[in-house]
Amino acid sequence: MIILAAITFAACNQGNRQGSQTDNDSGTAAAPAFSADSAYACVEKQLAFGPRIPGTPEQEACAAWLTAYLRALADTVYVQRTTVTAPKQKSLPCINIIASFNPAAKKRILLLAHWDTRPYADKDAFDKSKQFDGADDGASGVAVLLEMARQFGLEKPSAGIDILLTDVEDYGESGVEASYCLGAQYWAKHPHIPGYKADYGVLLDMVGGRNSAFYYESFSRQYAPAQMKMIWDVGNRSGFSDYFRYENNGAGAEDDHYYINTIANIPTLDIIATQPNGNFMPHHHTTNDNIAVIDRRTLQAVGQTLLNVIYGQPFNY
């Protein structure tokens, strides 16, 4: 088990650690440098398992690797195993993975992303039944959080941090109420610690695609407007104004954050790429969602911005 953890940890830790960066002109403490190379390698590692579809061997193999990776870094790792009911009364195994840093800290931030892959490319122009990699839709958000976890392991932040990797997010069907985000719904009703609360949460979903832009998402504006503005301000001061856009393009996503807000009552925002017209990116739920769409600079923009927030003034909103 120790050898496995060491091997799997190294497999997703490519690239050199860069110098620390600061939140420009804010007077806050220096943040460690986010390694886009390491995050990119984490995307590749997830894709090497194949599509992480609930109920498959690939799901189990990837879950084991994610758990081992985080156990090498976090103070405590929790694994929630349950069964959820997807559309058409399909029972699916669900594996949520939670990594806690600074568990005694009262002020906490919840960071989350889904790690499963949709079972079919229903938006594909040629074969809507085909499986796809889910490089951006799932793997990119997880990869950013894994690289952030590596930084937390090297230099622990003062705030308490909980990383939640949710499962069975993308098995839903349009028009079937509450059929998406089943892992997040389960966690919101059954948190890893009874009565768990965080000051706010940040969801990462589709945060690695080339030419991405992150607009103000509607449920984020409703439930966590101050926290969202704080992060967008830091992103702009950090040199990523082409990514963190203040415009409201009308996009609203029934994403994991919706259920964290409405069930767990933790104000949570969604960093999610959309087009100027409010639609998801063109590769969304198609076979084009593969490693070719992943851009290191997009991963860098999201990861470095969040590190600057967490190591700077994480509750300055």
TrEMBL record:
Annotated keywords: Acyltransferase, Transferase
Start and end residues of each Peptidase M28 domain: 96-309
Keyword Acyltransferase set for record: yes
Stored InterPro entries: Peptidase_M28, QC/QCL
Pfam families the UniProt entry points to: Peptidase_M28
Domain of life: Bacteria
GO MF, one annotated term: glutaminyl-peptide cyclotransferase activity
Descriptive protein name: Glutamine cyclotransferase
Lineage, top ranks: Bacteria, Pseudomonadati, Bacteroidota, Chitinophagia, Chitinophagales
